Amino acid sequence: QVQVVESGGGLVQAGGSLRLSCAASGNIFSMNTMGWYRQAPGKQRELVAAITRGGESNYADSVKGRFTISRDNAKNTVFLQMNSVKPEDTAVYYCNVRVWRTSTTYWGQGTQVTVSS
Predict the structure, then answer these.
(1) Is-contact 81 60, C-beta < 8 A?
(2) How far apart are CA 89 and CA 98, in angstroms?
(3) Which residues are paired to 97 by β-bridges?
(4) Which of 26, 44, 91, 105 could form a disulfide with 38 if both were Cys (CB 3.0 to 4.6 A apart)?
(5) Average pLDDT for 41-56
(6) Cα–Cα distance for residue pair 101/92, rounded to 1 Å
C-alpha cells in the first residue's frame, strides 16, 4: 500500500529554478533511499540524484552544482531543488523509494519538467 506522489513540475525558462517534492506513504520502513530519476522521450531513464536516510547523497554528473536533493525523514518526503535549469533537463521526473529491508523499489507516476530555451 505504498504510495509515492510527486509534485512541483511545470514549465520554466532556462536559467530558472524549480523545486520538486515527493511524499511517500505506507510502510516503507526507515531504511530506505529516496531519489529522483528522469526520462526524456526516446531516452533511457537515468538517475538524477539519490539520498539515504542519513543524508548521504549522490548526483548525476550533468546536474552536479545545479541540483540539490534533500529529505525530511519525519514526513517521508524528498525534494529536488533545481537551479540554473537547462533545456536538456526537460524530462518526466520520477520519484523513487528503495526499501532495503524488502529489496523493493517504489515509483511515483512522474511529473513533467519542461525547460524553455
Answers:
(1) no
(2) 23
(3) 34, 106
(4) 91
(5) 96
(6) 28
